[in-house]
Amino acid sequence: MKIKLAKEDIESSKIQLIERVSGEEMRRCYQCGKCSAGCPVSFAMELPPSQVMRFLQLGRVDEVMKANSMWTCVGCLQCYARCPQGVSVAAVLEALRQIVLRKGTDHERIKDVPFPFMKSAPQQAIVCGFRKFVS
Amino acid sequence: MTMKIPYYPGCTLNTVAKGFDATAREAALKIGFEMEELKLWNCCGATFPLTPDNLIALSAPAKVLSNARKEGDTVTTLCSVCYNVLKRTNKVIKDDKEKRGVINGFIDSEYDGSLSVLHYLEVLRDKIGFARLKEAVKRPLKGIKAATYYGCMLLRPFEDIGIDDAEKPTIFENMLSALGATPVDFPNKIECCGAHLAMNNTDVVEKLSGNVMTSAVDNGAELIVTSCPLCQYNLEKSQKRLIEERPGYTGVPVVYFTQVLGLAIGADINTLGFEKNEYSIMPLLHRKGIVAGED
After folding, report:
1. ipTM
2. Among A65, B270, B271, B285, whose CB has the most other CB atoms within 10 angstroms?
3. Å from A25 to nearest chain B CA?
4. Mean pLDDT calculated for residue range B96-102
5. Burial profile B9-32: b = 16 or more Cβ within 10 angstroms, e = fewer
6. Is A21 on the interface with B (CB under 8 A)?
7. Model-level pTM?
């Protein structure tokens, strides 16, 4: 696959928004892959954490927005704990979620959450889930 | 006079994890301190926002802290998530003057971050001391191989939490040793259980929690001890699939550390909430001769 690098893609307003909301600078990542190695859910992500960072470095926001990675991240911060550059991919993925949710688009509909779960789960799971998935 | 410690229970300990709360209070009294519940508290929000611009999400935990400061200079929690959220929020308010102003504006407060946020385990380690705890043991957990599951929120991020080493923590093991149990080290003790994905991605949760359970059991664990109600829930639920898929796997009890603490310091066995656990600890206690009876 041919990749065309263009300054206007790499520094697009979308990238700037992601950097502002996450507080992370994409170019700090040097692609060592320790985040993807340590991430307990990378096996279930269409783009593992290091690839999310790489796509964003190349300005390819659309591919990242389409991937399930942001909704699969549990925010356990193992990526951040292991990153030699001190980058929090978890913060980048949360920024992507926030960008979707702040437009009022829900990822999860409350009425679709299974009733047995609502009845028996610890409250913290419900509160946290709503914060992560509902606008 | 008994030392009184201001205590924040949080939403889950007030509802589905009542046993966690009750056993902690009872154990404290037996050890020689009192958990005094805050007069005014609300849910902490159950998640620390990872994006630094999301200050509105800090208003709930800031309100908890601001109210707690009116009652003293420390607040103690039991739930790992409450601990994480309150401690990190407190640090933001303390270190960042600009954000402090914005957050205080949301909640009509002048809180300055001067509270010290503690976990119950820290109270045991730093205020009581594990040596003194050992002296309080009436029913040593001799012969029980217990795996301590830390999960994420009790430890990370290290520079904000700092309760222990982020990669090789020992606070839990040291507590269990004081109680007479044999701590079991295992690779997945600081790996995530799947957390809130229990809401919409049970496949991932079963895999993650399943890995924690098999990693612990393969290293000899007969009991899993934790400090987070969501970890406890996920680890228990994930075992149904393990029982179906792994020949010979029959399920392992997953309990709160305060339940075994109470057990060791001689609390009435019927007050420890063991009947609420999906996989009973009783056969293990009978087998090891810690509690009289048969399976």
Report:
1. 0.94
2. B285
3. 13
4. 98
5. bbbbbeebbebbbbbbbbbbeebe
6. yes
7. 0.96
